[in-house]
């Protein structure tokens, strides 16, 4: 089993990192020989779209004849996804949605004619579905009866990942981290589970 492990928090000790590590550890219990590919977007952020990349994606004509080297970085990221049997993400909720480092990854992985095709009914994924476990940490409460803020993160990830073919998503939450002390935070990690198919 090949696991792609992605973290997005800029903090080396964060709740979302604890969640993603716990998920990977559970996978290793099931498959001790699993291979782990690490992509730490928080510690090593991806560059945002360059002019050459944006120009290449701007039309079908330029996509058919891309600027030399403009798609190399995106191809490497897509290959990591294609090689994975399972994807594990750890991400904080930043201002109700995904952090910019995760958006930069998404912007390079979603590509017409490569990871999705456009149809009259919308985007259709071209990648093989596989389990995606997403650990989310939020300073506030966005799910359940005590929710006091909207959640644009889980619907967004469900749509964008689904548009490239990744539909078997499991969201694990730790919420109200801004109000937890260390012991409570440890107990709260990974207590919330939501599934999207």
Q: For the record, what is the CATH homologous superfamily label? A: Flavodoxin domain
Strand order across the biggest sheet? 2-1-3-6-7-8
Corresponding CATH architecture: 3-Layer(aba) Sandwich
Distance between the termini: 21 Å
Reported by name, the CATH topology is Rossmann fold
Helix/strand/pairing category: alpha/beta
Number of domains: 1
| Net shape | globular
Attribute tags:
197 residues, 7 helices, 22% strand, six-stranded mixed beta sheet, two-stranded antiparallel sheet, Rossmann fold
Overview of the structural elements:
- This protein has helices at 15-30, 51-57, 60-64, 72-83, 100-109, 153-163, 182-188, and strands at residues 2-7, 35-40, 86-92, 116-119, 122-125, 132-137, 169-174, 192-196.
- Mean pLDDT is 90; it is low at 183-197.
- It has seven helices and eight strands.
- The strands form two sheets. A six-stranded mixed beta sheet has the order 2-1-3-6-7-8, with helices on both faces.
- It has 197 residues and is of the alpha/beta class.
- The protein has a single domain (2-196), classed as Rossmann fold (3-Layer(aba) Sandwich), CATH 3.40.50.360.
- The relative contact order is 0.17.
- The protein is globular and about 50 Å long.
């Amino acid at each position: 089993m090949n696991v792609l492990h992605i973290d997005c928090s800029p903090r080396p000790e964060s709740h979302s990192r604890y969640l993603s590590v716990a998920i990977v550890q559970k996978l290793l219990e099931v498959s001790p020989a699993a291979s782990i590919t690490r992509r730490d977007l928080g510690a090593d952020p991806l560059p945002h779209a360059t002019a050459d990349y944006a120009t290449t994606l701007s039309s079908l004509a330029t996509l058919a004849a891309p600027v030399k080297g403009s798609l190399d970085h995106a191809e490497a990221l897509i290959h990591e996804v294609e090689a994975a049997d399972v994807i594990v993400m750890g991400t904080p909720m930043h201002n109700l949605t995904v952090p910019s480092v995760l958006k930069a990854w998404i912007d390079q992985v979603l590509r017409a004619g490569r990871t999705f095709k456009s149809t009259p009914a919308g985007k259709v994924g071209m990648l093989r579905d596989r389990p995606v476990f997403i650990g989310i940490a939020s300073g506030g409460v966005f799910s359940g009866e005590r929710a006091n803020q909207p959640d644009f993160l889980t619907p967004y990830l469900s749509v964008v990942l689904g548009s490239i073919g990744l539909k078997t998503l499991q969201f694990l939450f730790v919420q109200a981290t801004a109000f937890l002390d260390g012991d409570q935070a440890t107990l709260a990690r990974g207590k919330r589970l939501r599934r999207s198919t």
